[in-house]
Amino acid sequence: MIYLNGTQLLWTVFLSLILCSVTGCKQTPADGEREEQLSSTPQPAEASPTAVKTVLLENTSFPVELIANGKVQARQRADLRFRTDGVIQTIDVREGQHVAAGALLATLDDNRQQTDLRQARLDQRRALLDYEDQLLRSGYRLADTAALDTEIKTVARLRSGLAAAEIALERATSALAQTRLTAPFAGTIANLNARPFNQANAFDYICTLVGDGALRVEFKVLEQEIPFIRNSRTASVSAFSAAEESYMGEITNINPLVDEGGMVSVSAQLKGPSNLLDGMSVRVIVGQALANQLAVPKEAVLDRQGRKVVFTLENGLAKWNYVEIARENSTQYAIASGLNAGDEVIYTGNFNLAHDKPVTKAD
Q1: Which pTM does this prediction carry?
Q2: What is 66-75+213-290's CATH superfamily?
Q3: How far is CA 122 from CA 112, 157, 159, 169, 218, in A?
Q4: In sequence order, which residues have a C-beta less than 8 Å from that of residue 102 and are 6 or more positions away?
Q5: Residue 265's closest CA among 225, 323, 212, 234?
Q6: How do 50-56 and 359-361 pair as beta strands?
Q7: Does domain 78-210 bear CATH number 3.20.10.10?
Q8: 118-172 tens-digit pLDDT
Q9: Where are the alpha helices (DSSP H) in 67-186?
């Protein structure tokens, strides 16, 4: 037996403590404790299938659309003005008023024209008396004029001044008529600029008359789109403020000239009544149907890694398909390659899908 003195004992305890700190002084758990710890660790639960909606892909008619911005125009529209000078006496209509063809719109002070007309009538009567005198001097009576030679009557009319007097009377009658502004066609009054007691020539025009006839739409397309327009012949028109209301129109004119921007003007006449107004900006959709196309909703097509992807449903799993787009319209894509008729295409719930991820159909 070895006996240690106090100093040796202290060194022994010190070295034991150092050795314990190096080795960690840890106890290895028993196998039963290890299994209990593993069993108590939470394990990740298997993810539930994603709910999706699908559509069965089949060959169908695909409406191709060309979309443009246009302006509504009335087929009849005129800025009306007096054809003679004078002071405006009355304005007989108000803005927004509907008028019939021939309705009186405004008048000028016509005192001068009335005087000129009376003078012209007097001059015509005086010339007629001189004409009769010319005939009597030649041995004819006025009652015989129907049987007179044309040359004799022409000479008599010139010498008497009757021909010139009749022309002056016509001018005076026309000048008086020009003091009354009337509607050349039925329509609605707009842009009423003039006011009474002002000179007529102080205004560019008195008012604008917008006709009751059918409206038309003017829009522009690229020159390479003209063959598509010629084959379509119809257009759908809607106001930007009420896109849910659309009106059908028939393409009537294609301008044969191309402007500096490579654009061509096209006109379409609207069919039937509408809530559109002259000058309104509208959206024009020209459509043409293509047969035997595989069409999918736009929501079904995703951008992944710079390519177009569509997921299909096969045996409860989502399948990743690269596709090529042939054409598109406002709601659909026509698929050129990557899908086949009979595929079940996923179009909702597809944003976070991956290949072979479990999915289920939503109710």
Answers
A1: 0.59
A2: Efflux pump adaptor protein, beta barrel domain (2.40.30.170)
A3: 16, 16, 18, 9, 54
A4: 182, 183
A5: 225
A6: parallel
A7: no
A8: 999 999 999 988 888 877 777 776 666 666 677 777 888 888 889 999 999 999 9
A9: 111-137, 150-160, 162-177
